[in-house]
Amino acid sequence: MKNEQRAGLEASPNPTNIMQWNAVMSGPEDTPWDGGQFKLTLEFTEQYPNEPPRVKFISSLFHPNVYADGNICLDILQNTWSPVYDVLALLTSIQSLLSDPNPSSPANADAARLYSEDRREYNRRVREVVESSWLDSSAAAEPEALQENGHAAEQQPEPAAAAPTAQEQGPDAAAAADPGVAEAPQAKRQRTEDHAVPQSTEVQAT
């Protein structure tokens, strides 16, 4: 099994478990599902392709043939499965089911009722699902972006501390830096005393 891709469909195996696949399905164009991005998982067994994989939506859907837990009520996943179906053929059938549900075999009774009796309200609920899928996609992208930004921040060197100005270092430093700056009286008096009293070389014990 290898990565599968077609317009509006993409599927690939889990890097750590080839029997588990992740898929992303775009909503069919020119339908209320248009623009949506829906995530699915596929779990294969050792009996594949003689038995179908278990497929379920991870994204929340409002659809007559999708259960609340994401499992899908579709004939080819049950009694009409054939070993000739590959991953893309299976996902294409599910994609078609989005815009062409079977309300006579409902997995979601509320969605099936609205689809049959109030198509306008049904379409409004579907558009809510589509908009929710955009938020899910954005939320999934944020951690990766934050991780990249955090890594860049770790590598960014700390700015060098600015050297203190002569004024911040004290009046003596200011005078040394600029001869035009007059010494403070206390500093001038201390300088005079230093010249008047000889320095002692003895260290007085405390």
From TrEMBL:
Residues 1-135 form the UBC core domain. It holds the Pfam family UQ_con. GO terms for molecular function: ATP binding; transferase activity. It comes from the Eukaryota. Residues 152-187 have a biased composition (Low complexity). This is Ubiquitin-conjugating enzyme E2 2. PROSITE patterns: UBC_1 (PS00183), UBC_2 (PS50127). InterPro entries: Ub_conjugating_enzyme, UBC, UBQ-conjugating_AS, UBQ-conjugating_enzyme/RWD. Residues 133-206 are annotated as: Disordered. SUPFAM superfamilies: UBC-like. The gene is UBC2. Belongs to the ubiquitin-conjugating enzyme family. The active site is at C73 (glycyl thioester intermediate). It comes from Coccomyxa viridis. CDD domains: UBCc_UBE2A_2B. Keywords: ATP-binding, Nucleotide-binding, Transferase, Ubl conjugation pathway.
